[in-house]
Fold this sequence. Notes:
Layout: E1 13-18, E2 21-27, H1 30-42, H2 45-62, H3 71-83, H4 88-108, H5 149-158, H6 162-172, H7 178-182, E3 189-190, E4 195-198, E5 207-210, H8 213-227, H9 252-265, H10 272-285, H11 290-297, H12 312-326, H13 329-341
Antiparallel strand pairs: 1-2, 3-4, 4-5
Amino acid sequence: MSLESVTGQLVQITIVYEHSTMIDASTNSPLIDHFLRKVKMSRSRHTWINYAHDLKVFFTTLSLPLEQVDRHSCLRFMELQDQAGLSSQTINRRLAAVSSLFHELNLLDPVLFPQNPVAPLQLNRTMYRRGSPSLYRKQPQRVPDVISEEDLRSFFAVLPTWRDRTLVLLMWMSCLRINEAVSIRFGDIECSHRSIHIRHGKGNLERIVYMDPFTFAALNKYLDEERRDLFPDVDEIFVAFKGVARGRPLSVNALQHAIDYYATRCGCALHAHLFRHTGITQLVLQGMSEAAIRKLVVHRNINSLLPYLHLGDTFVAAEFEKAQQVFSPVKQLQRVLSGGEQ
């Protein structure tokens, strides 16, 4: 397929779904098709899906040909998204998809696409001493919410199946993202170490995570009492048992809807990612080494765990008390006073 740009044509992006799962994305622009294929091959499936949706929103909102997208139109997009009530986080995520697209276009055709309209290259860094030239909105450091013990008890009390209990425990105790939990296959489980091979995590990174004994027991309950020998040709562990999706791998949307439904039943304000936040926070507060936590949850930034100390007063107080056991100001004062008396 030729990668020549089709000038003057409004960008149209078509997304194809099968059983509520995105299976394809195509456009009337060979350049954008190239970019989406590149993302699909080099990034995680989750990133490919997000980029396709975010670019569709961008070009649908602006109704511009690809070659006419500039810094002014990106700013207009931000204004329209802001007026629609979108959060800074969502706006920045959509701008990141546009920025990544134009970075690739610059590599393909630097004459037609000489600059990235979202985040221009800083060829002379002294020009930008007072701030970045990017359009990304500044966001306050997000403090991850956590689920209270009372809400966790109430939520588990209304879950009707071992399948749903196991999935929630995997997101909470093993700190999995929702898409990682529903994608687990039989071949990913290593029973002797209660470990799971996550093959397609964020950033397409593989890793090994672990189950505590209770989660492992819940998984076995699900397999013995609910999954049994049903659907032997389905490799995914978690499947739908009702409706038109019966026998198919459980989808992210189905699990999200289930969490929303049962959270409403027990009067809790919950969403899937809160379980992961809660699990990571508990690991931090229990003193697990930061390097081990980052490897477990795929946080590569050395400062990525700082927000999880937001329950910090209790944590800092405990750490302060431990420090005092080594360094005693009373002993130091006694030495000073004895020296003074002499």
